[in-house]
From TrEMBL:
<dbReference type="GO" id="GO:0005886">
    <property type="term" value="C:plasma membrane"/>
</dbReference>
<feature type="transmembrane region" description="Helical">
    <location>
        <begin position="357"/>
        <end position="377"/>
    </location>
</feature>
<feature type="transmembrane region" description="Helical">
    <location>
        <begin position="296"/>
        <end position="318"/>
    </location>
</feature>
<feature type="transmembrane region" description="Helical">
    <location>
        <begin position="72"/>
        <end position="88"/>
    </location>
</feature>
<feature type="transmembrane region" description="Helical">
    <location>
        <begin position="235"/>
        <end position="264"/>
    </location>
</feature>
<feature type="transmembrane region" description="Helical">
    <location>
        <begin position="330"/>
        <end position="351"/>
    </location>
</feature>
<dbReference type="InterPro" id="IPR020846">
    <property type="entry name" value="MFS_dom"/>
</dbReference>
<dbReference type="InterPro" id="IPR050189">
    <property type="entry name" value="MFS_Efflux_Transporters"/>
</dbReference>
<feature type="transmembrane region" description="Helical">
    <location>
        <begin position="94"/>
        <end position="114"/>
    </location>
</feature>
<dbReference type="GO" id="GO:0022857">
    <property type="term" value="F:transmembrane transporter activity"/>
</dbReference>
<feature type="transmembrane region" description="Helical">
    <location>
        <begin position="126"/>
        <end position="150"/>
    </location>
</feature>
<feature type="transmembrane region" description="Helical">
    <location>
        <begin position="271"/>
        <end position="290"/>
    </location>
</feature>
<dbReference type="InterPro" id="IPR036259">
    <property type="entry name" value="MFS_trans_sf"/>
</dbReference>
<dbReference type="InterPro" id="IPR011701">
    <property type="entry name" value="MFS"/>
</dbReference>
<keyword id="KW-1003">Cell membrane</keyword>
<feature type="transmembrane region" description="Helical">
    <location>
        <begin position="42"/>
        <end position="65"/>
    </location>
</feature>
<feature type="domain" description="Major facilitator superfamily (MFS) profile">
    <location>
        <begin position="6"/>
        <end position="385"/>
    </location>
</feature>
Length: 385
């Protein structure tokens, strides 16, 4: 129990970080109307949440370790809240960009420091459970962000929605302030040696690139999905967000549990990725082109089961890859940097595709991105988890 509670609080900070990705979908039409944004410009607003990570996530793992993982998590939540405040008070597109960039700094600190702190909270079994739980923070956080943003924006406006998705992080860090900071053993690596170690590891590179394409594509699908459902199916924002939220939470938890059971029975992580990624590719192609609501809801469940399997597997592979020779914060940083580069790139590109080829074009593009990630996983990942 002593280890379980801080894991829950750290997971909560991760949820608040990922809520920053999900919150923009429901307020897309409001932002586009108020600031006269094109789909590509909105895609940039959405993707800037990971701009800091795209620039320096890998070295930030080493810096966060030197600062102290506890301090890094605290700084991350506070910076994220500050960025949300700037974003929520924006009266010009430049302040939207500035607020999202500040938020991205906080997001980065959380995603490299919180899971690294988790690895110091118990034995191998506890750590494995914690990392499996952490593997769901992106999709579940995105779903919660979408849901909360839809409710608050419909009731109080988009500015309240932005703040409502960031301020809960301050609640999660309060009990963490009372926790003893993790031991600093292994955190004294030089920047060069820490980065070089993870960059030379073929499994680390393969998992990071697979997760990057997966993460960038998933960020784009979720950012545009509320608008797509409203446009194609003629439903309201609240219903669209509820459908996305419920199917995401249920599907991802189910997928993560399934992946954890199979990993516990010595199924290779690569095999799980080769199942989850094509499942997502087929599902998203149907979701963005199917004419009926019932079909969309059913396939969304399958999509999110695949998402839970893929995300949980990627994170579950990290401690085994790190072993005793690699810096876990640096490995987390590399995973984050690769992912955030693609999260910056794929949503704006997807916006251009939607502008030119409508939702059917997006369906094909998203499916191809997931199949590319599957190809990399199949050819490059060779570790058993």
């Amino acid at each position: 129990m002593r280890a379980f509670l801080p894991i829950v609080f750290l997971y909560g900070t991760g949820l608040c970080a990922s809520m920053q990705v999900g919150l923009v979908g429901p307020i897309a039409n409001m932002l586009r109307g108020q600031f006269d944004l094109s789909q590509a410009e909105f895609g940039l607003v959405a993707s800037l949440i990971t701009a800091a990570g795209a620039l320096c996530a890998l070295p930030s793992g080493i810096w966060a370790a030197r600062l102290g993982l506890k301090k890094a998590v605290m700084a991350g939540v506070i910076t994220m809240a500050l960025g949300a405040l700037v974003f929520s008070q924006a009266d010009h597109i430049a302040f939207l960009y500035l607020g999202r960039f500040l938020t991205s700094i906080g997001y980065l600190l959380i995603v490299v420091a919180a899971p690294s702190w988790m690895t110091h909270l118990g034995n191998r079994r506890v750590v494995a459970l914690a990392m499996g739980l952490w593997g769901t923070f992106v999709p579940v956080g995105i779903a919660l962000g979408t849901w909360i943003s839809a409710g608050l924006s419909a009731w109080l406006g988009w500015r309240a929605a932005v703040l409502g998705c960031a301020l809960p992080g301050l609640v999660f860090i309060l009990p963490l302030m009372l926790r003893t900071a993790p031991a600093r053993e292994g955190f004294g690596r030089s920047l060069t040696s820490g980065i070089a170690g993870v960059l030379r590891n073929k499994n680390a590179l393969a998992v990071s690139l697979t997760f990057a394409i997966f993460g960038g594509t998933t960020s784009a699908t979720v950012a545009f999905m509320p608008a797509m459902l409203m446009d194609r199916l003629g439903i309201g924002l609240t219903m669209a967000a509820t459908i996305i939220g419920v199917t995401t939470i249920i599907g991802n938890i189910g997928g993560s549990l399934l992946g954890g059971i199979l990993l516990g029975r010595n199924v290779q992580g690569r095999v799980l990725l080769l199942f989850g990624l094509p499942l997502m590719a087929i599902s998203i192609a149907i979701i963005y082109s199917a004419p009926g609501l019932i079909t969309v809801v059913a396939v969304l469940c399958a999509f999110n089961i695949g998402q839970g399997i893929v995300a949980g597997t990627c994170f579950a592979l990290l401690p085994r890859i790190a072993g005793k020779t690699l810096s876990m914060p640096a490995l987390q940083g590399m995973l984050a940097q690769f992912a955030e580069i693609f999260v910056v790139i794929i949503p704006p590109v997807s916006g251009l595709i939607i502008d030119d080829f409508a939702w059917h074009g997006a369906a094909m593009a998203f499916a191809l991105f997931y199949l590319l990630a599957m190809t990399i996983a199949g050819k490059r990942i060779r570790i058993v988890a």
